[in-house]
Amino acid sequence: MIEKLRLPVVAAPMFLVSGPDMVIAAARAGIVGAFPTPNCRTAAELDGWMARIAAETADAPGLWAANLVTHSSNARLADDLALVAKHRPPIVITALGSPAPAIEAVHGYGGTVLADVINVPLARKAAAAGADGLVCVSAGAGGHTGFLSPFAFISALRAEFGGLICVGGGIADGAGVAGAIAAGADLVYMGTRFLAAEESMAVAGYKDMVVASGLEHLIVSAAITGTPASWLIPSLVACGYDPAALGAAATRDYGGDAHKKWKDLWAAGQGVGAVRGIEPVRAIVDAIAGQYAAAVERLAG
């Protein structure tokens, strides 16, 4: 499946950022385009998104993926799974819970299930539940982040897991992709690099902030969503938060009201410094491809 890709890259699913335009553009550029199903407010809207994406990527050199929140607070999970079975995304990525609820539906049409994990014990549980691959969310990831080095994480999992390994965390250029593949990964998650893409659903202010920000503008906290996430400090300040006193973890709730609670709180990962302008997805992929080829040539030398 992934052998058809131009680059072993996933334009990672980002809350309130990834939509049909970006997913389709990514697949047409030869990578995997992904979106979280909670970006749709209703099942009917999700039905429309999936129908459009499936139709417009049918002959694309890349693939598309749907990202499901399998946490118990997602009351729409059953409806989302029914639409997954209807539209058959080649890849389904589960997050914030076990991949088990998605296994039967996705395997029923021959799809691939990847499970987000942030540590080795969770990875073992996901593999035991039947996941075909693991998304190693590592230190440096934007949004809900991990804490392990991506290289140490890949090494630990590759020693005992024979399935697909996708890794994300601060990787924002082709050299980083080459390094991850050399270390044993099959795919690389890149979210922050696509935040300011022309096809991104991020509002203009969010895109401008990403372009203007660097590593010093990030903070990791569980005070917003209940799960540790990497936030842009200027967006927290603009919403009245004191970055030095964010407090304890919030109650985890990934239901429909999350759109209102988090729409003005903006996340980014440690690859933020690589975003220097607002560009089409195709141009971003072309740049990554050039960097990747140069890195592979260095390795060969």
UniProtKB/TrEMBL annotation:
What GO annotations for molecular function exist for this entry? monooxygenase activity
Q: Which residues cross the membrane?
A: none
Q: Which Pfam families match?
A: NMO
Q: Which SUPFAM superfamilies match?
A: Inosine monophosphate dehydrogenase (IMPDH)
For this protein, the record's InterPro entries field holds: Aldolase_TIM (IPR013785), NMO (IPR004136)
* Keywords noted in UniProt: Flavoprotein, FMN, Monooxygenase, Oxidoreductase
Q: Does the keyword Oxidoreductase apply?
A: yes
* Keyword Flavoprotein carried by entry: yes
Taxonomically, the superkingdom here is Bacteria
Q: Which family does it belong to?
A: Belongs to the nitronate monooxygenase family. NMO class I subfamily.
Question: Can you name this protein?
Answer: Nitronate monooxygenase
